[in-house]
Write a structure and sequence with these properties.
The protein has 220 residues and is mainly α. It has eight helices and no strands. It has helices spanning 2-20, 22-43, 49-68, 77-86, 89-119, 126-152, 158-185, 193-219.
Length: 220
C-alpha cells in the first residue's frame, strides 16, 4: 500500500518536472522529426520492407537513448539525498520506469506516424506491429532506465550508458525487428507467439533486476 502511494506521487512528480522543462522534450521531438525527414530524403523511392523496418527501430533506439538518458541527470545529488529520506528505492526506480514507458509510448507512436507519412505504410499486420511497439517501448524504457541509474553513479557518464546498454538492448532489438519484420510481410501471427513470449520474459526479467538491484545502488 505504501509502495503504491509512493509510486503514484513520484510518477506525478516526473510528469510535473517534465512539464517544467519542456525544452528537453521539444529537443527530443525535433531530433525525431529531423531524423525521419533526413531518412526520407536519403531513401525516397528506394525503400524496401527490410530497410523500412531497420531504419524505424534504429531511429527509435537513438530517440530512446536521448530521451531516457536524462532520467537521473536532471536531478542533482542533493535532491537524490532528499528522495532517499522520504521514499523507498523500489518506488523511485519503478516510477522512473513507468514514466519512461509513457514517454517512449508517445515517442513510438509519433515516430510511427511520421515514418508512415513520409516513408509509406508497409504494415500488413497492424496488431502484431503494435504489439512489438508496446513491448519494445517497455523493454527500452526498463533497460535504459536501469543503465541510466548505474551511469549516474559514474558522474553521469553518457558513454558508459551507451556501452553498458548495448549488450542488453541488442537481443531485445533483434527480437523486435523479427516480429515487426513479420508484421510488414504477412498478416498472420503464426510463428511470432514464441518471439512475443521471449520479449515478455526479457521485459519482466529486466524490471525484476532493476527492482532488486537498485536499492543496493541507491544506498551507495
Amino acid at each position: 500500500m505504501l509502495l503504491g502511494r509512493e509510486l503514484t506521487y513520484l510518477f506525478l512528480k516526473e510528469i510535473r518536472l517534465e512539464l517544467k522543462q519542456r525544452y528537453v522534450l521539444n529537443g527530443i521531438l525535433l531530433y525525431l522529426v529531423s531524423t525521419v525527414f533526413v531518412t526520407y530524403l536519403a531513401f525516397t523511392g528506394t525503400i524496401t520492407t527490410e530497410t523500412w523496418n531497420s531504419l524505424f527501430w534504429i531511429i527509435l533506439l537513438f530517440v530512446a537513448v536521448n530521451g531516457i538518458s536524462k532520467s537521473f541527470v536532471q536531478e542533482n545529488p542533493a535532491r537524490h539525498l532528499y528522495y532517499y529520506t522520504i521514499a523507498s528505492p523500489e518506488a523511485i526506480i519503478l516510477s522512473k520506469i513507468l514514466y519512461n514507458l509513457l514517454l517512449m509510448a508517445i515517442l513510438s507512436v509519433l515516430a510511427l506516424l511520421f515514418f508512415v507519412l513520409l516513408m509509406g505504410n508497409m504494415i500488413q499486420n497492424p496488431g502484431l506491429f503494435f504489439t512489438a511497439l508496446i513491448l519494445g517501448s517497455l523493454g527500452l524504457s526498463s533497460v535504459l532506465t536501469m543503465i541510466a541509474s548505474i551511469a549516474s553513479r559514474a558522474s553521469n557518464n553518457f558513454s558508459l550508458m551507451a556501452i553498458l546498454s548495448f549488450p542488453i538492448v541488442l537481443p531485445l532489438l533483434m527480437t523486435l525487428m523479427k516480429v515487426s519484420g513479420s508484421a510488414l510481410t504477412t498478416a498472420s501471427w503464426s510463428g511470432n507467439i514464441p518471439l512475443i513470449i521471449i520479449l515478455l520474459i526479457i521485459n519482466v526479467a529486466v524490471i525484476l533486476l532493476a527492482f532488486l538491484l537498485f536499492p543496493y545502488l541507491w544506498r551507495d
